[in-house]
Amino acid sequence: MGEPQAVEQQGKTSSKIKLGTVLLIIGIIFIGANLRAPLTSVGPLVPVIRDNLGISNAAAGTLTTVPLLAFALLSPFAPRLSRRFGVELTLFVSLIALTAGIVLRSSGGVGVLFAGTVLLGLAIAIGNVLMPGLIKQHFAQRIGVMTGVYAVSMNLCGAVASGLSVPLAMSAGFGWTGALGIWAVLSLSAVLFWLPQLGRQKKAAGAAGKSQSTRLWRSRLAWQVTLFMGLQSLIFYTVIAWLPDILQQKGLDAESAGWMLSFMQFAILPFTFIVPVLAGRMQSQRGMAAVTAALFIAGLAGILSGGSLLLPLWILMIGIAAGSAFSLCMMFFSLRTQSTQEAAELSGMAQSFGYLLAAVGPVLFGWLHDVTHGWTIPLLMLIAASALIFVLGLSVGKKKFV
């Protein structure tokens, strides 16, 4: 009798483990879905928001840069919060804050617009930093696959949100407040799906975490990963901000230029899954990093050349490179560290610097354009950043630890 009971009990335990894993995967997908959509939904609506609230172009422009600065500000502190309160609870509270930020931002006034933007930026920063460590903790043997699932969810929902903003505001009659506020439904869903994870709450050792953090900031490899993250962020956000203007001045109409930007974003998607899966199976990622940098250089050089016949090819190359570079960064946080907390610390360090560069990049690019009255020098700046990614990739792609 004892043996059948033991087998039955083992079966129940196995079922609970499988259910717990499924719920965790669903939770990760929903968190990923919320880390870009609240941001990408704003850009297409900036002119509408500006005209409706009567704010300046400069003030309207900060709606897209404020979250990046919030990322840079909070990212180094997110691992400390997870050490103190546990990663599951920290993510849960951040999702609640994200929902509150989305609702606040879409309430209709200038003050709440910016207050909500800051709040949701801080909330997203926590998710950005802690997710690589969470994946390393629960899926140590499937880091590549789960990083791919998480990245696809993030970028797919980001692309969809960007495309739906204007139709929701105009055609569906939601207005800009409704078009931005509707994403609170997605974040609230993430809150509900993350509730089961509070039962497996664990806290990291505080003293050990502080020691890891101090050592990390002295690590040459950690700084190389950080610079890799920063440069790819600079290129991506600068291209997102300026590509339509560049293409219009090279002869495309506004609608065609917009479609080219959408084409680039959708080109990113398959590679945010393919690259982590391949990288997770390789001993070295140097070749992948080199190819990624080469694609950036080729695509940017193609746009610089001015030819329109091969323009879709140049845009495709930049999209593939952007998806690959981002995914490699997410993988390096796990592959170049030896513990969950160390992965979170490296993620926080790299993303803080990375998003600071991302906020500076479009401004510097625009300033160079104003000074030189052309696109050659600004694009050469991005090509130089791509060349640095190539050099850094040869080092961070080696199998070693911070």
From TrEMBL:
One Pfam match: MFS_1
Superkingdom per UniProt: Bacteria
CDD domains on file: MFS_NIMT_CynX_like
All copies of domain Major facilitator superfamily (MFS) profile, residue ranges: 20-401
InterPro entries named among the record's database cross-references: MFS (IPR011701), MFS_Cyanate_Porter (IPR052524), MFS_dom (IPR020846), MFS_trans_sf (IPR036259)
Topology of the protein relative to the lipid bilayer: Multi-pass membrane protein
MF GO annotations: transmembrane transporter activity
Keywords attached to this entry: Membrane, Transmembrane, Transmembrane helix, Transport
Transmembrane segments: 17-35, 55-74, 86-104, 110-131, 143-168, 174-195, 221-243, 263-280, 287-307, 313-333, 353-369, 375-396
Gene3D superfamilies for this protein: MFS general substrate transporter like domains
Subcellular location: Cell membrane
PANTHER family assigned to the protein according to its UniProt record, in alphabetical order: 2-NITROIMIDAZOLE TRANSPORTER (PTHR23523:SF2), PTHR23523
Name this protein carries in UniProt: MFS transporter
